[in-house]
Specification:
Layout (H helix, E strand, L loop, with lengths): L9 H12 L19 H5 L1 E12 L2 E8 L12 E8 L2 E8 L9 E6 L5 H8 L6 E4 L18 E6 L3 H14 L5 E7 L8 H10 L3 E7 L1 E2 L3 E2 L7 H8 L6 E5 L2 H13 L7 E3 L18 E6 L6 E5 L6 H8 L16 E6 L2 E3 L7 H5 L2 E3 L3 E3 L3 E5 L4
Helix pairs in contact: 6-7
Length: about 375
């Protein structure tokens, strides 16, 4: 139940409670009167942490370190990734990020490169600050080192651009366990300015005689593309010099990966010794969220406007709930593109399915696109007035 103020009309009750809530702090006083303030599926499904350090790797890439709350430690294998959730305004933005720290290091780090028109990558690379909150789900992925004495085996790594992130984690683990680990890295980028972990890799190259790096660049001076400089699978094998027994790890764009895999097959390398990772964003980030029916209150933006509270009978979007309850929410495309169904969440948290075109600025101001938004707890949303 909610706390009730006698002699105050029902339509003003929620506004008064919301106003007073910011002034009443002790022990979650309002939580004593019910509701499910702490029942948030995303927040409870992962490990909550805070950003403790942000490192500028290049002009368009950063590494951020996370300290988990309540003393938790996250067990992962080098090369793995995890789903990270960032609360911006009342909306959770979720992205798959690779670990750039190794399991043997005493910190948890992710490295992100800005994607053209990428909302979350732009937010992370330009605005993420120490102290901000992030929720990390359990590690996933099979792009990992062998379980049996990995530090004593031979490795050939091929990485392009940000594909170096999981491989960097592996290299650090291998060299940390065996200073003489036999490792060859072929790393291709547009130019030296685009290289991630360049200084750190150079230091490892200097300290470990058995670690060899082949730097490769595809752009001439002036950032002009030179197709003759693009790597092929055969060219990679020439740089490696020996396609003998080894574990081959490939983290590049699809075309180069296929070319290298074909070259390895032609050289007689067993496919059991070849591992590759091709990154692509999940089309539906809500698939892994334990959503459940929630209570949604639609209130109109004017002070004297009415409000309608609906208990969902099944998991559905805010727009689907509004339509079923007869609440007039404008919409057109229902695909997260047109912004006609943009609503403001004034209480509670939500998650939006991808892809959608809501800007980070709108998200931080509390707006969502109702057609692709699901409640994570009981929420109050503001419906715009009709013109």
């Amino acid at each position: 139940m909610d706390i009730w103020f006698p002699l105050v009309p029902r339509r003003y009750q929620r506004q008064i409670r919301r106003t007073l809530k910011g002034w009443v702090r002790p022990a979650g006083w309002f939580n004593r009167f019910g509701g499910d303030e702490n029942d948030v599926s995303i927040r409870d499904s992962g490990y909550s942490g805070r950003v403790v350090r942000v490192i500028q790797e290049t002009e368009t890439a950063v590494t951020f370190e996370v300290a988990l709350e309540h003393g938790f430690r996250l067990n992962f294998r080098s090369g793995q990734h995890a789903l990270a959730s960032f609360p911006l305004g009342n909306t959770w933005f979720r992205r798959v990020l690779s670990f750039s720290s190794s399991p043997d290091e005493n910190y948890l780090a992710f490295t992100v490169k800005q994607v053209w028109h990428g909302r979350v990558s732009t937010y992370i690379t330009e605005r993420l600050r120490v102290g901000e909150r992030v929720v990390i789900d359990s590690p996933q992925g099979e792009f990992t080192l062998p379980l049996d004495a990995p530090e004593s085996q031979r490795y050939v790594f091929l990485a392009a651009g940000s594909g170096i992130v999981p491989i960097f984690s592996m290299i650090k683990e291998l060299l940390g366990r065996n200073e003489l680990a036999d490792i060859t890295l072929v790393y291709t980028n547009r130019s030296p300015e685009n290289v991630l972990f360049k200084r750190a890799l150079e230091v490892l190259d200097f300290r470990h005689e058995s670690f060899k790096i082949h730097w490769h660049y595809t752009r001439k001076e002036g950032d002009v593309s030179d197709h003759s400089q693009r790597l092929s699978g055969d060219a990679v094998l020439e740089l490696v010099g020996d396609a003998g027994p080894a574990h081959y790890y490939v983290s590049t764009q699809a075309a180069l990966a296929k070319s290298f895999l074909d070259a390895l097959a032609a050289s007689g390398v067993s496919e059991t010794h070849v591992h590759f990772e091709l990154f692509s964003a999940a089309s539906h980030v809500t698939d892994g969220v334990e959503l459940q029916p929630r209570r949604i209150t639609f209130e109109y933006s004017s002070l004297l406007g009415k409000e309608v509270t609906v208990q969902q009978k099944q998991v559905e979007t805010l727009l689907e709930t509004a339509n079923a309850a007869g609440v007039a929410v404008p919409y057109n495309c229902t695909l997260g593109n047109c912004h006609a169904c943009k609503l403001k969440v004034v209480h509670g948290s939500t998650v939006m399915d991808e892809p959608n075109t809501l800007s980070i600025q709108d998200a931080q101001a509390g707006y969502v696109l109702a057609c692709v938004t699901y409640p994570c707890e009981d929420v109050v949303v503001q419906v715009p007035r009709k013109n």
